């Protein structure tokens, strides 16, 4: 399954089980927006990440952005403590994680905390943990301040979105232990 197909499945399930949350999500990024962000970040987005952002750019509207937090997003999706990033939030978090020389720490290139080839797409408000797409091969990994970075947690962004779709299916069948739907919104207990 492609990233577009997997994301479409996520959106269909979200619309079905949490229509109020689905209605809040904004439209897509444009090629112009992505090209400008790539130029500022001095990277080329992985094709899967690009295809996803061209479907939904999950940045909050400017008036809803809280400048006191590292990242802003739509609370409660995909889970209680983290949210998907739009292109502005990706750019901001990438700039915060960027390291001269490309690897942090530089003396541990085989097991770094961060590599500049990792582009975040999901985070918490502080930018202390989240998921990234590896530009080198498209695999999805996870970082968390104070813990080892996991590279290759998912083979691709499509595989990660498949896991989100499975979680939403459990929620819609009322079979998820930590989430239910209240008035069309995901509610985490």
Overview of the molecule:
With 189 residues, the chain is an alpha+beta fold. The protein is built from 6 helices and 9 strands. β5 and β6 form a beta hairpin. α1 packs parallel to α6. The mean pLDDT is 89.
Secondary-structure map:
Layout: H1 3-17, H2 19-24, H3 31-41, H4 47-53, E1 83-84, H5 87-97, E2 103-104, E3 114-115, E4 118-123, E5 129-134, E6 140-144, E7 150-154, H6 157-172, E8 179-182, E9 185-188
Antiparallel strand pairs: 1-4, 2-3, 4-5, 5-6, 6-7, 8-9
Compute the CA-based radius of gyration.
16 Å
- The outline comes out as globular
Show unreliable segments. Answer: none
- What is the percent of helical residues? 25-40%
Protein structure class = alpha+beta
Largest sheet: 5 strands, antiparallel
Count helical runs.
Answer: 6
Strand order of the largest sheet: 1-4-5-6-7
Q: Quote the beta fraction.
A: 15-25%
First-to-last CA distance: 32 Å
Encode the helix/strand succession as letters: HHHHEHEEEEEEHEE
Quick one: how many beta strands? 9
Would you tell me the overall average pLDDT?
89
What attributes characterize this protein structure?
6 helices, alpha+beta, two-stranded antiparallel sheet, 189 residues, 35% helix, 9 strands, globular, single chain, 19% strand
Could you give a short description of this structure?
The chain is α+β, with helices and mostly antiparallel strands.
